[in-house]
């Protein structure tokens, strides 16, 4: 079975919410829709206090190339535009809407029928994806339309759909494939048309055998779409790792996947693209997993953007006793949340409750030169060295040792027998070196 | 008469000693000649005044002047035409006067500065809402999120400034978790200013007898958000801006700033500040406050 060639780990899977039907979460009383994403410039608010908005109405205009439109996920009155603490741990601008009913824009097709035919041209599809504000739902929230417009001279040869979901605990993509497999495949054909490629591969990890079987059956009579089972290994969901696993090509350092002729989109993004192109529905909700070893009902929920996580968690049975840490996103790449009064954003893929004893860091000991971190690093870096350089502020050396290639997967910190905080230091070094490089290129 | 055996042994031993002495001596002389020639040929002239200036400097090698160590600074002093911006913050005006005397240049007299921490978010003013469990360094915590409190601008309290200080002048108070500066030890080298990821530390004029007034807050959020996060944050109400007779105060982004070049230390702003965000340091204790408060209400 295929997998990527360098490094990788296999943490306990703990997929408690697998097989749980997607439930639609209740409408919030107040929606707080963040205007900023993890990546890219924050969008600019185009509504003001007192405005009445409908579901699907544009409230934030994309600002620059790497930026995405933001739409209202509820109908009601804009009460204010203010800063709000979000999952990034910082206060950022958001639009506050007092919810009143559930009034959708007429252009949005809310019927449950599956619309198969798409007569739009390549440019029209990309324009629709762009105006719908679709971003990568795997976690990095990179605007989806940017990936569909490769730089001049580059041509994509193959579309890769990332349905790996290599993070432990999370099951939202798995359930989406089970319930909306057909729509996802239509989304894939739309993307193939937008990119003008003949071949698409859907990579699924082998712990989701039912999803692989389901998609294979559906894709049997579709030309050019393959479903590939992959060996369970973290971080297979990393763009570069997935390309290596599926088509055995390695993206050069500092380059983007289209350099080796591949474009990667997440499976949930593909579903959102189907909805945007065929149903005119902008990015206003997403499926997220609420789970944990002690969670009362681990499950998958379709939540409107801007809903406070506290109300979704309440619906899912509340925070279990003995929870030490609540992580937004998967346990490997996610960030622990400061509190639950954080609005649901486009990148929120899950809420994981960690027990007290799991959440406390063990005492740090000296490096014993076992090179486990080097063995597991999927990018072929030397984490122990980068950490030592970061501690000593050796930025030029870190740049030479390719710190910018780090994908921050956390495999090194996970595997270290001395519990050394490798990723914390590397991430700090990466952001500092990134700043140095940016100031140099700006000159 | 033949010499006896003892004598022969003695002469032979002397020969060995002589030969080795001579050989080594010749090698030594040749090497000395080569070194002498090379030293003359490749001689680099170094201004002797650099050594003199270096001797006059405090030898702290802190980098506060912006040069790599005291020798780098001495070199720059000798090579530049004017002393101008060159200033040793550790030695202060006395040292610069000495340097100027050695070089025959004039030193610009600069006011003595001291580091001030522009955050007073102690545990009682600014409750901790979550617990940080990662690496106990400000720069790493700052890279991750906004901090344990609801204020995303304030002090994180892990003491990167304390680690950076070579003079033992700044210490995090374990009770308040806010760093405190020892006026007597602080040399205004600026190491803590560079170490603080939240940009809270500022070098300000030390003032007469160490008296100084500054806004102890850097929160640029709107007033209601600041107030929710911290009791002593600057809410940008601009009362101090209105009361200041010298126009030393500016308010931008909901944050007041006192320009220490203009401030005359009249303390009017301290009285009107509703959140006590403006700090006064080293002033004699005030007389009972009852009367002035009544006056301001009437006015």
For the report, how would you describe the main beta sheet of chain A? 6 strands, mixed
Number of domains of chain B: 2
Q: Could you list the spans of chain B in which at least 5 consecutive residues all have pLDDT below 50?
A: 291-299
Structural class determined from secondary elements of chain B = alpha+beta
Query: How helical, in percent, are the residues of chain A?
Result: 25-40%
Q: How many runs of DSSP E, i.e. beta strands of chain B?
A: 8
CATH architecture of the domain at 122-279 in chain A: 3-Layer(aba) Sandwich
| Largest two-chain interface | A-B, 20 and 16 residues
Which class of secondary structure composition applies to the elements of chain A? alpha/beta
CATH fold assignment of the domain at 122-279 in chain A: Rossmann fold
Shape of chain B: elongated
- Radius of gyration of chain B using CA atoms only: 31 Å
- Oligomeric category: heterodimer
Number of strands of chain A: 17
Helix content of chain B: 25-40%
Plain-language structure description:
The complex is a heterodimer of chains A (443) and B (299). With 443 residues, chain A is an alpha/beta fold. Among the domains of chain A are: 122-279, Rossmann fold; 372-442, no CATH class. Chain A has helices at residues 122-131, 144-147, 172-179, 181-195, 209-219, 239-247, 267-279, 309-315, 356-359, 372-376, 383-391, 395-400, 411-415, 422-442; strands spanning 22-24, 30-34, 44-45, 52-53, 58-61, 70-71, 76-85, 91-99, 158-163, 199-205, 225-230, 262-266, 285-292, 299-304, 323-328, 335-336, 350-355. In chain A, the strands form four sheets. A six-stranded mixed β-sheet of chain A has the order 1-14-13-17-15-16. In chain A, helix 3 (172-179) runs parallel beside helix 5, helix 4 (181-195) packs across helix 7 and helix 11 (383-391) crosses helix 14 (422-442). Chain A is globular and about 65 Å long. Chain A starts with 21 loop residues before the first strand and ends with a helix. Chain B is an alpha+beta fold. Chain B has helices at 5-41, 48-56, 69-79, 92-103, 138-144, 160-164, 191-195, 223-229, 239-243, 268-272, 290-298, and strands at 113-117, 170-172, 179-181, 201-205, 212-215, 249-252, 255-258, 278-281. A two-stranded antiparallel ribbon of chain B has the order 1-4. A two-stranded antiparallel ribbon of chain B has the order 2-3. A two-stranded antiparallel sheet of chain B has the order 5-8. Residues 291-299 of chain B have low confidence and may be disordered.
């Amino acid at each position: 079975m295929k997998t990527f060639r360098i490094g990788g780990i296999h943490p306990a899977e703990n997929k408690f919410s697998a097989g749980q039907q997607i439930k639609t979460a209740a409408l919030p009383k107040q929606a707080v829709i963040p205007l900023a994403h993890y990546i890219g410039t924050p969008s600019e608010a185009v509504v003001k206090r007192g405005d009445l908005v409908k579901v699907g109405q544009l409230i934030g205009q994309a600002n620059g190339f790497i930026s995405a439109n933001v739409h209202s996920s509820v109908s009601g009155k804009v009460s204010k535009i203010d800063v709000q603490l979000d999952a990034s741990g910082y206060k950022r601008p958001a639009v506050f809407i007092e919810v009143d009913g559930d009034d959708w824009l007429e252009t949005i097709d809310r019927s449950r029928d599956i619309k198969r035919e798409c007569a739009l041209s390549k440019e029209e599809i990309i324009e629709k994806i762009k105006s719908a504000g679709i971003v990568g739902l795997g976690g990095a929230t990179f605007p989806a339309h940017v990936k569909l417009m490769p730089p001049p001279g580059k041509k994509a040869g193959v579309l890769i759909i990332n349905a790996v979901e290599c993070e432990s605990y999370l099951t939202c993509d798995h359930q989406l494939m089970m319930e909306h497999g057909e729509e996802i495949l239509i989304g894939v054909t739309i993307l193939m048309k937008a990119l003008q490629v003949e071949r698409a591969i859907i990579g699924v990890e082998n712990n989701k055998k039912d999803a692989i079987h389901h998609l294979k059956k559906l894709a049997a009579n579709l030309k050019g779409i393959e479903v590939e089972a992959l060996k369970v290994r973290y971080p297979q969901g990393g763009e570069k790792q997935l390309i290596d696993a599926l088509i055995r090509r390695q993206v050069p350092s500092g380059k983007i996947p289209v350099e080796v002729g591949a474009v990667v989109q997440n499976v949930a993004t593909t579903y959102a693209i189907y909805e945007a192109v065929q149903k005119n529905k902008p990015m206003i909700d997403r499926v997220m997993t609420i789970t944990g070893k002690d969670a009362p009902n681990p499950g998958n929920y379709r939540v409107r953007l801007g809903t406070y996580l506290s109300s979704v968690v309440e619906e899912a049975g509340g925070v279990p006793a003995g929870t030490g840490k609540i992580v937004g996103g998967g346990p490997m790449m996610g960030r622990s949340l400061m509190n639950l009064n954080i609005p649901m954003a486009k990148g929120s893929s899950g809420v994981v409750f960690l027990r007290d004893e799991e959440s406390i860091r063990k005492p740090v000991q000296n490096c014993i030169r076992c090179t486990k971190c080097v063995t597991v690093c999927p990018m072929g870096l030397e984490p122990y060295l980068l950490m030592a350089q970061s501690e000593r502020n050796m930025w030029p050396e870190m740049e030479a040792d390719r710190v910018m290639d780090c994908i921050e997967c956390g495999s090194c910190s996970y595997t270290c027998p001395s519990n050394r905080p490798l990723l914390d230091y590397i991430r700090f070094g990466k952001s500092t070196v990134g700043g140095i490089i940016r100031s140099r290129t700006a000159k | 008469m033949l010499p006896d055996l003892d004598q022969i042994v003695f002469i032979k031993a002397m020969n060995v000693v002589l030969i080795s002495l001579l050989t080594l001596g010749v090698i030594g002389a040749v090497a000395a000649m080569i070194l002498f020639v090379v030293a003359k040929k490749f001689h680099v002239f170094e201004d002797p005044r650099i050594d003199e200036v270096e001797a006059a400097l405090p030898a702290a090698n802190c980098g506060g002047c912006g040069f790599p160590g005291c020798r780098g600074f001495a070199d720059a002093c000798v090579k530049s035409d004017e002393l101008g911006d060159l200033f040793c913050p550790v030695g202060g005006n006395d040292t610069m006067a000495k340097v100027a005397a050695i070089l025959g240049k004039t030193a610009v007299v600069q006011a003595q500065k001291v580091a001030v921490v522009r955050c007073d978010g102690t545990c009682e003013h600014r409750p901790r809402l979550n617990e940080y469990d990662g690496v106990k360094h400000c720069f790493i915590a700052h890279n991750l999120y906004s901090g344990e409190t609801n204020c995303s601008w304030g002090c994180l309290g892990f003491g990167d400034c304390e680690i950076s200080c070579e003079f033992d002048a700044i210490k995090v108070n374990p009770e308040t978790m806010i760093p405190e500066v020892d006026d007597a030890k602080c040399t205004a080298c600026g190491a803590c200013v560079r170490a603080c990821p939240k940009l809270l530390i500022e070098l300000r004029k030390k003032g007469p007898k160490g008296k100084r007034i500054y806004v102890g807050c850097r929160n640029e959020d709107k007033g209601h958000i600041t107030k929710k996060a911290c009791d002593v944050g600057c809410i940008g109400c601009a009362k101090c801006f209105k009361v200041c007779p010298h126009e030393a105060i500016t308010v931008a982004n909901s944050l007041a700033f006192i320009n220490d070049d203009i401030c005359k230390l009249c303390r009017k702003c301290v009285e009107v500040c509703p959140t006590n965000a403006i700090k006064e340091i080293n002033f004699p204790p005030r007389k009972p406050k009852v009367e002035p408060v009544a006056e301001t209400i009437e006015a």
